[in-house]
Each structure stands twice: as structure tokens, then as C-alpha cells.
Amino acid sequence: MKGVEDDGRGRSVPCLVAVRCVVATAVSVVAFVMVVMVIITVRRPEEIQVVVDRGYVAVHGMETAVVGNMTASVAMAPAPAGGHRRLLSTAAARKLSEVHGSDTQTVGGGEDEDTEEYYPTFRIVLKVSSPTGRGDDVIDCNTTIGLVDVLAPPSAPAGSTDAAIVLFGAVRFSLDKESSHTLLATATIGHDEAQRRYVTERYRNSFVFQVAVKVQMIATRHSSSTTYTFNCWPVTVGDGYAAELVDDDDVLCTKTTSHDKWIPKLLHFPAPPPTS
Fold first, then answer.
1. Which tens digits make up the pLDDT trace of 57-100?
2. Residue ranges of the chain assigned to CATH 2.60.40
3. Which residues of 94-124 are buried (b: 16+ CB within 10 A; e: fewer)?
4. What is the sign, positive or negative, of the torsion defined by CA atoms of 32, 36, 42, 47?
5. Which of 247, 209, 220, 179 has the alpha carbon at shortest distance from 59?
6. How far apart are CA 200 and CA 63, in angstroms?
7. Distance CA 35, CA 263 (A)
């Protein structure tokens, strides 16, 4: 009606409309970003961690192999049923003789010299974990481990190369999400005389020596797979589990970049010089 003033009810204030639009847009953007982050987190590959247990690789029989190469007397244990006899270190032979008496045979200096050779066995323990909880529930892992003699002088066969002086066979296992797996791998050397000579000479010169442990892991989820390379340093190689050699701390392995993948291969050891 003409002459009646409008009290403003039902009329929108322009500044409030702008504020509402800004708030609605901000909420939409935040919601969109959160959805994208969730999708990326779910689809992002799991974070696998690898450590070398106590930073140590134990060698059983290394001392005996070195002694054998020096043509000193060693002892041989009686063979188990259907098995082969094995050479023992002096301490082990002494203990065995207390149990078996004359069944323990000393070789290397008598007329009945036994030329059977002892093959040193390397043992390494890795702890593999997937702590983040990302990715699939179960990951199939195919792992190959090598010991690389990174401190070898350039003139040595292992100098300036990432080929392994000891290569462990592939080990396959399943890793659950947010879980860990303890992996024990062993490798016996000796069938290659040049390899055995190199490793025993390396041990003889320093009694213990340090290596880099290279780990190649192929992680398979459903139909896709990813290859990881881990570098573990420094790791000590020693004879047995002597308390003074084994550290209490694990060695955490670092994951290398995508363009620095390690290809597992055994070092080509030169043949020993001919004997006169």
C-alpha cells in the first residue's frame, strides 16, 4: 500500500550472499581435497622396511676352512646316517672327542690324510615389516640377498663392483599389512674353488670384515609388482656368534632411488694360479 514503509523483511543483503558463497566454496574445496588425500593414501604402495638383525652375518666353518687352506690339522666328525662327514674347528673337535672318543678323526697330518673339504655356510637374519598399514592386506615378497665387498681395494676382484661375493638364493614369503616377518637365509660356498679361496683369504687377512648387504625385493599385490632395492651398511661378517663380534643394534637398510636398482649377480672370481 502506498505510504507504508517496507521493514526490509524478505530482502537479501548483498554482503551476506557473498559470504555464504565463499563459505560454501571453501567447504567444497576442503571436502574434495580430503577425498583426494584418502584415495591417494589408500592407493599408495605400502612402506616396506628391512633391517639386518644385529648387523651381523655369521659364518659357520670359516675358521676351519681357513685352517684347511693352511694345511693344518683339523678334525672330522662321524657321518650321520646317510650323510657326509664334516670338518670341525679345534674347539669343536675337542668337544666331539669327549662324546665319540675314537670316532673323531684327525686329518691333515697323518698317513690316512682325508682330503674332504669343508664348505663354509653364511647365515643372515633380516626383519621385514610393513608398519604403515597402507596397501593390500597381503604382499607376496620374493627376496634375493647378496654380500658386496665394498671395502675391497680396486685391484681386488671385488673392487669397484656391486657384484656379490656371496649370493643367497631367492626366498619367498608373505607379508601381512601392519606386520613383520623374520627371514633367515643361508648360503654355502665351496663348489667354486676360486670363490672359496677369495672369501677365506679375505677372512684370514682381517678375521672379521665388513660388507654391504644388498637386498632386492619384488613385492607383488594382485596383478602388479614393484621392485625394491635396499642397501644395508655396515654389516659385520664373522665366524660364529662370538659375543665380542655381535652388536646389539640392528642395521636399518635404506631404500635406493628408482634409477639405482641392484641386479643380483655373483662376482666372477678369477681362477687360482696353477700349482707347480
1. 999 877 555 544 433 323 333 334 443 333 334 444 344 344 43
2. 47-73+118-255
3. eebbeeeeeebbebbeeeeeeeeebebebbb
4. negative
5. 209
6. 8
7. 39
